Amino acid sequence: MTVISNKIDEIFLLPPTEKQLFLSRFERIDVLKGTIVVSAEKIERYVYFIEEGIARAFRETDKGQRTIWFGEAGGVILSFLSFFKNQPGYESIEVLEDSVLYRISSSHLQELYNLHLPIANWGRKFAEQELLLTEQRFMDLQFRTATERYEDLIKHSPTILKRVQLGHIASYLGITQVSLSRIRSAKK
Amino acid sequence: MTVISNKIDEIFLLPPTEKQLFLSRFERIDVLKGTIVVSAEKIERYVYFIEEGIARAFRETDKGQRTIWFGEAGGVILSFLSFFKNQPGYESIEVLEDSVLYRISSSHLQELYNLHLPIANWGRKFAEQELLLTEQRFMDLQFRTATERYEDLIKHSPTILKRVQLGHIASYLGITQVSLSRIRSAKK
DNA sequence: CAATTTATTTAACAAATGATAAAAAATGAA
DNA sequence: TTCATTTTTTATCATTTGTTAAATAAATTG
């Protein structure tokens, strides 16, 4: 649980008592490659932390699946809509390799938020951090070209590039696979 | 202060004591049309709530200003990067009409977060809500065409369409003004 | 290993959007 | 109002990206 424990500390450092309380609410699950952890059809009642493995969030469209997010060890799997508003979310999330996850239920988390100030502030910092990441994605999409976004991916997430097929990468970048292939060949 | 007071309640209902404490930290400012409330150059130490008026966030690029957000009464003016990470943000924010704002300083807010559980949870809900809005923007940009985004704007924010010039709208939609003009003429 | 499936690249054409320039319309100031 | 400025629309051409289909390469399975 070390990866996740570090991740939790990184978001907001909890006093030992609260940290322990928080961790005690987590439950380990081992999932096989291809498992759909979160389904767009359903309201999801857990937040998952990735201890080991890699995950992909995607939306089903008329033109097939389109990837909206990749997560590696230390990443958090959740549907914001599901978890914050109790609605079915936009996305489904699958693991692309056999993975080890730890999850905490919505109701446990709510209870902790309502009783423990440090944990409420942890939740706030968590939301703020995810907000910054989402804003970053938005800015990239709005202000950078597909080529630049691809180069950023090479630079900042080489692991993903190596472990994930290009069709998923292309839709993540907001372009077709053909277009990505053109970008790749232009770069040589 | 009624618009803002309602907005605060909408995010998360505070007990009367905390609500009053929270409100007591706000300060009213009246700003003239064209005032730059938040500058991309600086670290901004306030969050502003719009009681009356309309605002626009934009980034300076090599091709001129590009709008990233519009806010009306009840909206919140802040740079996430500035406020959450104490860094200069991406955007500058100006008011497009004479406006009435209420602001609370970063340090006051931090203090309230650290001492009052309900306010910490208010802050969490606020971040969660802004996260959902940002995610929505991202999804729109990624999954909908410029034409659809324009139609959504007509449907959901007719006020903005009426009060803001089309150049700003176009860059908000992520297209050129020429392209927006084409979309508008195709619709007749 | 060969056979089959899946993933990736390439090519040709269509559609959408950008860039630039000019015209038309709207706005604001004297 | 009239003139000057700003905003919006229109037109033309270049560029980018999408679409479809086929070819190549890689991975998987029996």
Describe the structure.
Chains A, B: Residues 31-114 form the Cyclic nucleotide-binding domain. Chains A, B: InterPro entries: cNMP-bd_dom, cNMP-bd_dom_sf, RmlC-like_jellyroll. Chains A, B: It comes from Pedobacter ureilyticus. Chains A, B: Pfam families: cNMP_binding. The structure is a homodimer of 188-residue chains. The first copy, chain A, has 188 residues and is an alpha+beta fold. Chain A has a domain at 2-114: Jelly Rolls (Sandwich). Helix content of chain A is 52%, strand content 23%. Chain A has 9 helices and 8 strands. The first copy, chain A, has helices spanning 2-11, 16-24, 80-85, 106-115, 117-143, 146-156, 158-163, 166-173, 177-186, and strands at 27-31, 36-38, 46-52, 55-61, 64-71, 76-77, 92-95, 99-105. Chain A has a 4-stranded antiparallel β-sheet with strand order 1-8-3-6. Chain A has a 4-stranded antiparallel β-sheet with strand order 2-7-4-5. In chain A, a hairpin with a 2-residue loop joins β4 and β5. In chain A, α4 crosses α5 (117-143) and α8 (166-173) crosses α9 (177-186). Chain A starts with a helix and ends with a helix. The model of chain A has no long low-confidence stretch (mean pLDDT 93). Chain A binds chain B through residues 59, 61, 66, 68, 80-81, 84-85, 90, 113-114, 117, 120-121, 123-124, 127-132, 134-135, 137-139, 141-143, 174, and chain B through 59, 61, 66, 68, 80-81, 84-85, 90, 113-114, 116-117, 120-121, 123-124, 127-132, 134-135, 137-139, 141-143, 174. The first copy, chain A, binds a DNA duplex (30 and 30 nucleotides) through α9.
